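Below is a filled-in request sheet from our internal design queue. Each sheet records the structural input a requester submitted and the sequence that came back. We keep these sheets so that new team members can see what a complete request looks like end to end.

REQUESTER: design group, bay 2
PRIORITY: normal
MODE: inverse folding
CHAIN LENGTH: 647
BACKBONE (tokenized):
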């Protein structure tokens, strides 16, 4: 039972009235909630939609529809009244007794809020996809949070979702790390106690990028290494695979800690090794999609020209020296995902993840099977990549459209998002050197990976966990259960980071503030966990709540504003899920979760629950608490936030 059923019943009554009045039917009946509660629970702007067609005032149209619709009112299940407003809106009020009884009866069950719009259609979500050249920083963590949450939300909406992680083990950053270890004296082994991916990023990668300014000969060494990797030169390839594998496994540990898991790792070196790119490149040339520049600064380069896109070097597929660019390397994987080229991979089981899910990887040969564990050619492929790559993604979409002879923009979807910056206070707390004018603007620290100005995802989670531990100990000074304290602090830290990365519009720059994200009041992950724990505490203290009584008549007992507002919000969970799916944005579930917590705390502060003397009303309110607890667990789960029974 959801608010959507009330909307659909209201639409059905209106459509029947339109038939009786011989009025045209609009393609979509637009709905909203009235600005004032006295007008009802639902509003259609049908008077405005039909006014010009029937040549009547909006108010007259609405009045006629209301008069005819009211004739069928007795047959409706959830509509208490239908009234026309002088402005031309049609307002509906709920039958609160039957509606809230049904909501409470169903909302306490597992899976409440699931919707079937996916109908089993296949979705591929590719996220993380960080070069195995160093640890994930907090900007990468936004990618992980968005991708993982979208995968969870689409699965909840009945899509068949599988998650990919693209391993760019043959790019510039990997070559930079190899340069450091082969030519600048950095050991292949990390110092004792240092996480290997941290060591690879700092000092190796950061120091190597500084050395390029001092020794131009290093560029030639990097180009040589890139060519050796592309050619799978035995002199270097085993070393590269060994180092990148160690880095990758540490990256995965960070992602698992964050709650993200995968189905398949796709290696760029395997795309090269199985000739996916070389075969596709020949096809692009033969079909005229790629062309050779013969003059100007790009002479000798193979380029693709996209109508409507400005000219620039990022249209280059292959440079004059024969080295493929980023867009060229990304295109064969995109084409493979969409079923536009043949799959030449072999596949092998890589490892079992902490959640028990088997993780597979691509291989150039051998392996266990040549059948992909992830079927290609889905109905839609989602690829979260920050907005700085938007042009490259449009070029890839264009190439895919040319290959498929159809527009692929709705199937191959770039989920763009803005970067993550740091508050100046957080940067100082974590020891980030912001004494660089180009990185500081309005007390915001812009991260710069090549300059070493960033916060590792691991360090952000550790810092949040330390602060969470301090606050938890204040609340439980006599606690002797160190494992419980560690678990609670860890989950609070993850909730703080995840929610701060998901609650904003995707196109808004996030200014991450460590202390702000940990607040127990306001729009934060810990506040949501605290609210869930409060609801759990109420249920735990009540035998009536634990019995989960049927709610056939409880809806009629919930009459005050805080009760009905909360009940109505519970019924709108599926609407938030559907909106996140249609808008491809987790923020709608995040906002819903916060709104539900706000409504619950308002209800709890103004109503007695355990102390309510009226037994039936006490049971009704406990049912309301049970429903909130269950729905909040579901909604937070879609954000990758694990609930806590006690904080």
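RETURNED SEQUENCE:
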């Amino acid at each position: 039972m959801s608010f959507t059923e009330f909307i659909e019943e209201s639409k059905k009554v209106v459509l029947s009235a339109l038939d009786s009045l011989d009025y045209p039917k609009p393609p979509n009946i637009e709905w909203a909630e009235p600005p004032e509660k006295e007008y009802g629970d639902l509003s259609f702007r049908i008077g405005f939609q039909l006014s010009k067609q029937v040549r009547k005032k909006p108010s007259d149209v609405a009045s006629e529809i209301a008069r005819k619709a009211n004739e069928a009112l007795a047959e409706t299940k959830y509509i208490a009244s239908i009234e026309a407003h002088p402005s031309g809106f049609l307002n509906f009020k709920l039958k609160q007794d039957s509606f809230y009884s049904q909501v409470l009866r169903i909302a306490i069950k597992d899976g409440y809020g699931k919707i079937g719009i996916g109908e089993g259609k296949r979705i591929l979500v590719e996220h993380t996809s960080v070069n195995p050249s160093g640890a994930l920083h907090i900007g990468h963590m936004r990618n992980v949070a968005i991708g993982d949450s979208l995968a969870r939300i689409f699965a909840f909406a009945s899509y068949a979702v599988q998650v990919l992680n693209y391993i760019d083990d043959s790019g510039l950053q990997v070559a930079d790390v190899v340069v450091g270890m082969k030519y600048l004296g950095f050991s292949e082994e990390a110092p004792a106690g240092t996480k290997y991916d941290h060591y690879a990023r700092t000092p190796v990668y950061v120091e190597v990028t500084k050395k390029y300014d001092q020794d131009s000969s290093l560029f030639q060494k990097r180009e040589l290494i890139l060519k050796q990797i592309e050619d799978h030169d035995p002199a270097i390839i085993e070393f590269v695979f060994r180092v990148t594998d160690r880095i990758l496994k540490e990256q995965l540990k960070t992602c698992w800690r964050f709650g993200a898991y995968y189905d398949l790792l796709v290696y760029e070196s395997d795309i090269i090794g199985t000739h996916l790119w070389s075969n596709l490149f020949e096809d692009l040339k033969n079909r005229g999609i790629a062309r050779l520049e013969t003059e100007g600064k790009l002479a000798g380069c193979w380029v693709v020209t996209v109508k409507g896109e400005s000219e620039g070097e990022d249209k280059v597929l292959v440079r004059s020296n024969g080295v493929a660019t980023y867009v060229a390397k990304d295109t064969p994987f995109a084409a493979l995902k969409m079923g536009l080229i043949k799959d030449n991979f072999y596949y092998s089981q890589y490892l079992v993840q902490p959640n028990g899910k088997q993780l597979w990887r691509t291989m150039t040969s051998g392996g266990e099977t040549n059948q992909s564990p992830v079927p290609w050619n889905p109905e839609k492929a989602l690829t979260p990549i920050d907005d700085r790559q938007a042009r490259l993604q449009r070029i890839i979409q264009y190439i895919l459209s040319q290959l498929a002879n159809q527009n692929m923009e709705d199937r191959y979807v770039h989920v763009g998002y803005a970067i993550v910056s740091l508050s100046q206070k957080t940067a100082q707390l974590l020891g980030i050197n912001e004494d660089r004018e180009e990185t500081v603007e309005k007390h915001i620290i812009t991260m710069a990976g090549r300059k070493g100005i960033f916060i590792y995802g691991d360090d952000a989670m550790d810092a949040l966990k330390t602060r969470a531990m301090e606050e938890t100990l204040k609340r439980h000074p006599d606690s002797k259960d160190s494992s419980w304290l560690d678990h609670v602090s860890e989950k609070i830290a993850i909730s703080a980071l995840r929610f701060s990365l998901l609650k904003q519009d995707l196109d808004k720059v996030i200014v991450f503030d460590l202390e702000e994200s940990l607040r127990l009041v306001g729009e934060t992950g810990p506040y949501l966990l605290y609210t869930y724990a409060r609801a759990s505490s109420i249920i735990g203290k009540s035998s009536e709540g634990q019995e989960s009584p049927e709610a056939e008549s409880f809806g009629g007992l919930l009459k005050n504003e805080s009760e009905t507002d909360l009940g109505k919000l519970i019924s709108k969970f599926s609407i938030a899920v559907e909106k996140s799916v249609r808008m491809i944005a987790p923020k709608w579930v995040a906002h819903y979760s916060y709104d539900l917590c706000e409504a619950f705390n308002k209800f709890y502060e103004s109503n007695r629950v355990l102390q309510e003397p009226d037994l039936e009303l006490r049971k009704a309110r406990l049912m309301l608490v049970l429903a909130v607890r269950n729905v909040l667990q579901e909604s937070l789960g879609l954000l990758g936030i694990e609930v806590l029974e006690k904080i």
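SHEET NOTES:
- The chain has a mean pLDDT of 91.
- The domain at 127-273+346-375 is CATH 3.40.50.620 (Rossmann fold).
FILED BY: M.R.
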